[in-house]
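#dry-run=false #mode=assembly
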Amino acid sequence: MTVAPTTPYLRVDLDRLRRNVRRAAEWAATHRVALRPHAKTHKSPEIARLQLGSGAVGLTVATLGEAEVLARHGCDDLFVAYPLWVDERAADRLRDLAERATVAIGVDSVEGAARAGRLLAPFAVEVVVEVDSGQHRTGCRPDEAGAVAVAAARAGLRVRGVFTFPGHSYAPDGRAAAAADEARALGTARDALVRDGLEVAVVSGGSTPSWAHLDAGVVTEARPGVYVFGDAQQWELGAMPPESLALTCRATVVSHAGGRTTLDSGSKALGADRAAYATGWGRLLDHPEARIVQLSEHHAVVDLAGEPLPPVGSQVDVVPNHCCAAVNLADGLWVEEYGGLRRWPVAARGRNG
Amino acid sequence: MTVAPTTPYLRVDLDRLRRNVRRAAEWAATHRVALRPHAKTHKSPEIARLQLGSGAVGLTVATLGEAEVLARHGCDDLFVAYPLWVDERAADRLRDLAERATVAIGVDSVEGAARAGRLLAPFAVEVVVEVDSGQHRTGCRPDEAGAVAVAAARAGLRVRGVFTFPGHSYAPDGRAAAAADEARALGTARDALVRDGLEVAVVSGGSTPSWAHLDAGVVTEARPGVYVFGDAQQWELGAMPPESLALTCRATVVSHAGGRTTLDSGSKALGADRAAYATGWGRLLDHPEARIVQLSEHHAVVDLAGEPLPPVGSQVDVVPNHCCAAVNLADGLWVEEYGGLRRWPVAARGRNG
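#status=ok
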């Protein structure tokens, strides 16, 4: 396929993507950390294959729906890093999945562990205890991890270890501190399990911003997701330089009215994510000083910081603030290779449950 | 279909939806304003049919992709309220569309008008001149509308009239002022066309927040979109009361860790929209004091303002901040009727181009 689709559409720079995948794999090998990339970022069987082909031990997902899609495409080791509420239907889906793949799920309470055990034991679904290392959304306190793990073991489930997501690494100058919090929380949780007589096979952490600061003395497995593409958030946090950014939204300049530059890449293409530290609703890859200063569903108004306006009808490459959100809006990614474009389906798009 | 899907999923209260559709139609009839609802909100042939069946003169869309989907489902009068950049491919698509429907497109510059004429005249695509009434994203100045319209007419296109979107109505206490700006801008633009010897068949405006203040002495056609569902933005702006809100995201409480209430309705289900005036990332329909205080892709942390935590595993109804964004994340809407659930496809989901 060499005919470009109509704008706005997502483009992947395959050289950069491959380089990002390779570098993460090399970092993990050097530090003797198992790499289990988070597939919620790309939802793409092709990118999953690239990751697994360069040494990833398996994949992380956020939902059963993502796990099912990736299992159908041959991924045989999946960790649902989420404290799933296991009802009869989820239990049926997990049993089906476990016939095709090694499957683990998150658990963050004694009640959740007991319930998962009631519905799933003695099937081969393992559990990993989620602890809160500072983001304060899910995860038990690190010193409670032993009790949760014991409840799971008593309910007949195999406990694989402990995990956290140091999401508070998404803050200016917060990256190293979040990695330190992560190591402390995971170390405490691991010790709690050991004290309760449980083996801890995996101590899992990792986010793209904190990745460079990961404490490989504690963490045995890392689950970064965004690193494959990068985005304006990583650029602004200093976690990834612009020359590593592999995902852009190709947009058309549709209006110069009022002396503005307005693009057709609105929030339905880029996502509406705007962190407190973000300088706008997205960046332009080839205009580092430019900022998207107003965003609606089909309009992005750009402040070009004094640069001349690109002509109406010309195309520019926008870097979304949050690549996971942009990808989940698209049914396909357009991959540049040998001067042409191929379409990779976003096979797990919208699989929220 | 009576089996509810896995959370998070979008539910439509059909009674409320029908009431919202009927009330808007009644308001339009009383004020002798033509109603041309914006279908970008629902992207649903079923809801389009409800609107057209209760007196809407046609539909508004934002993209050619939306127009194509709705035309395939029988809608024969479509206005693309957007200053489309018309290239050869867009011209081909417009010609195909014009075989099945009356089609109009927006134009906001002399150059755009001339170009559209070169590629489209003398086919039956009409143009409507977009003017800026205060949102400052697209649209020429009202006093420039005559020149744009003349350029279109000289290029062989039929000019239908003028339009604006008073998007600055999305501000606390901004609704009446935006409607006044809209009437002033449209009146100026209409007069400019008349002075240049052009007929003005349609003077089109309208947004859901400004709708109650619309000046029917100037505006002949209104294009509200959100009114069919409402959302937390309309609730907080005072434009729609909570008992009229017809779209919710059914979510499961997945964690009480740290004494929090965390739901599985993250930004990939609700959208990440958060206007400056918003009090959070979404509301709970049955807990008016509650706020979503932290949102990530699969987690919504709720502050219940002192109410007791709903049990883990229980379900709650979340009102998204912006219904258009939430709908565009889902492949289907689950419609409550006679105690059961039916699925309506979001047929134009993701049709950004």
